[in-house]
Design goal:
Layout lengths: L1 H10 L2 H62 L9 H18 L2 E9 L2 H8 L1 H18 L5 E6 L2 E9 L2 H15 L3 E3 L2 E3 L3 E8 L6 H17 L5 E3 L2 H23 L2 E10 L4 E13 L3 E3 L5 H6 L3 H21 L6 E5 L2 H5 L3 H12 L6 E5 L1 H5 L2 H14 L2 E7 L6 H6 L4 E4 L1 H6 L4 H17 L2 E5 L4 H9 L4 E3 L9 H9 L1
Parallel strand pairs: 6-7, 9-11, 11-12, 12-13, 13-14, 14-15, 15-16
Antiparallel strand pairs: 1-3, 1-6, 2-3, 4-5, 8-9, 8-16, 9-10
Helix pairs in contact: 4-5, 5-6, 10-12, 12-14
The structure holds ligand C2E and magnesium ion (MG) (2 copies).
Length: about 500
């Protein structure tokens, strides 16, 4: 120590030493303050940390909740809460794997609601949604807990039944579902009646993997729908054969379009008394190179199903207008030519402009063109349909409703449609003398026509009795075998002169 002081003394001025020590004290005070401040900071930091941790935990909990919701959304259909298409695939895969191991069946059922579109259009989408919820509740109700009920989209539902021992078990469920779903229900105060068609396929019998099973089950569903509403159908070899035949038919139809194998027959329409010909209906035929003359019942549906009907339909309209012009030039008196328009054809955006182009090209008088639409056209995109019909009327064409009484027959829509004629379906005409209900329907349509100020024509009159009853009820326009069958162009002029 003495040595140090001596050193200091020897080296430094004492005043400097004091200054140095003072600044050292200040430095230390500053450090002390800083340490104190940082201690406060540390406490605050700890508090902040705690809050941050709580927040993070909260956020984590929320994120987990979101994840759960997202996962559920990815697996289920938001409207009905049923499994969606993805989840359906996963569960079907699982069921097939299990069945492979255990050696039993998996049944797949595919559903298509009858008249769902009509319900939607007629009662509005909220009731359509309620119907879907009602259907899903019924499906869940009738199936087992181990079954999967899924909504694949729109009005398509599916049920997977794993662990099935035989097809009877599945048939029972299908029967019960058909019964339950065809009952009328009240949804938001409106009475709605739907129904369902069901196609059924069994793994491994009808398909060895998801794709195979789905395809055959879908074919069974198509068959069930074709056989009429409210039915179920198992896939079988006959369906397989049919679908093979369907593919051949489709191929032939494509060739027929290229080779222009379609022709028209014409069935005259008569006005009583006097039996003047007031019009003709153009009816398409297909001259098949091997099968001979094929009737519409044997190919129209397939053509419609395969999207070929628009092409065929355009050829029909064109040929009929050309024929009409030729008859006019040959000096035949003017009469209407009625042409059947398929729903798909009518729905095409360019339908009206196509008609206009054909009229321009052929020079056929639009006033003599009558377009026959079906009631189903009224039910789909109603406002758009009405707008189109008005544009057709502006062109000069007239409009009729074909097969009236066989569809939804909504009177409210009928009032809004600018139509000139109702054609009583031949199913009513033909049973008129034996079934009082059909007679009542025919009479109702005749009176409806009077009220709405539109013409009524009875189709399919085959006997004098039928014609007499209809005349008695106030009908004066007829088309039927009693008057004339559809005839080829060559025979038509002869028929006219007689
Ligand atoms: P539709 O429009 O109701 O035509 C009347 C059908 O009833 C015709 O059958 C006609 O031959 C038949 N028919 C007429 N009078 C009688 C009768 O007294 N007794 C019986 N048993 N039948 C009678 P066709 O020619 O076989 O046509 C069937 C259906 O095919 C038509 O029914 C129509 O819906 C459709 N169709 C025909 N041609 C065309 C077409 O060019 N385009 C479209 N989209 N459909 C067509
Ligand atoms: Mg027709
Ligand atoms: Mg008809």
């Amino acid at each position: 120590m003495t040595q140090k002081i001596t050193q200091l003394q020897a080296e430094e001025d004492p005043r400097l030493t004091i200054e140095r020590l003072q600044s050292r004290v200040l430095e230390l005070e500053d450090t002390q303050q800083r340490v104190e401040a940082s201690a406060t900071d540390t406490v605050a930091m700890a508090e902040d940390l705690l809050a941050a941790r709580n927040q993070a935990q909260e956020a984590l909990k929320k994120a987990q909740e979101y994840e759960e919701t997202i996962r559920e959304m990815a697996l289920s259909d938001p409207l009905t809460g049923l499994a969606n298409r993805n989840e359906f695939h996963r569960r079907l895969e699982e069921a097939i794997k299990l069945a492979k191991r255990e050696g039993n069946f998996v049944a797949l059922m595919l559903f298509d609601l009858d008249r769902f579109k009509e319900v939607n259009d007629l009662f509005g989408h909220p009731i359509g949604d309620e119907l879907l919820k009602f259907v899903s509740a019924q499906l869940v109700n009738v199936t087992r807990e181990t079954d999967t009920v899924a909504r694949l989209g729109g009005d398509e539902f599916a049920v997977i039944m794993p662990n099935v021992d035989d097809s009877n078990e599945v048939a029972l469920v299908a029967e019960r579902l058909i019964h339950d779903l065809s009952q009328p229900v009240t949804l938001s105060g409106s009475m709605v009646q739907s129904g369902t068609s069901i196609g059924i396929g069994l793994y491994p019998r009808d398909g060895e993997d998801i794709e195979g099973l789905f395809k055959t089950t879908d074919q069974a569903l198509y068959e069930a729908k074709r056989e009429g509403r409210n039915g179920y159908r198992f896939f079988d070899e006959a369906i397989n054969e049919k679908s093979r035949a369907g593919r051949i038919l489709e191929n032939d139809l494509r060739l027929a379009i290229v080779r222009d194998e379609f022709l028209l027959h014409y069935q005259p329409q008569f006005l009583t008394p006097g039996n003047d010909i007031i019009g003709v209906e153009a009816l398409v035929r297909w001259r098949h190179p091997a099968r001979g003359l094929v009737m519409p019942v044997d190919f129209i549906e397939a053509a419609e199903h395969n999207g070929l009907m628009c092409d065929i339909g355009r050829r029909v309209i064109s040929a009929a207008c050309r024929q009409g012009k030729a008859w006019e030039e040959a000096g035949l008196p003017p009469f209407q030519i009625a042409i059947n328009i398929s729903p798909r054809q009518f729905q095409k955006d360019d339908f009206v402009s196509m008609i206009k182009d054909i009229l321009d090209q052929t020079g056929f008088d639009p006033k003599r063109l009558e377009l026959e639409i079906t009631e189903s056209v009224m039910m789909e995109n109603t406002d758009q349909a009405i707008e189109k019909l008005h544009r057709l009327r502006e062109l000069g064409a007239s409009l009729s409703i074909d097969d009236f009484g066989t569809g939804y027959s909504s009177l409210a829509y009928l009032k809004r449609f600018p139509i000139q004629k109702l054609k009583i379906d031949r199913s009513f005409t033909q049973n008129l003398t034996t079934d009082p209900k059909d007679a009542a329907i025919a009479e109702a349509v005749i009176n409806l026509g009077k009220c709405l100020g539109v013409e009524v024509l009875a189709e399919g009159a085959e006997t004098k009795d039928q014609v007499d009853v209809l005349i008695d009820k106030g009908c004066s326009r007829f088309q039927g075998f009693y008057f004339s069958r559809p005839v080829a162009v060559e025979d038509f002029v002869k028929l006219f002169s007689s």
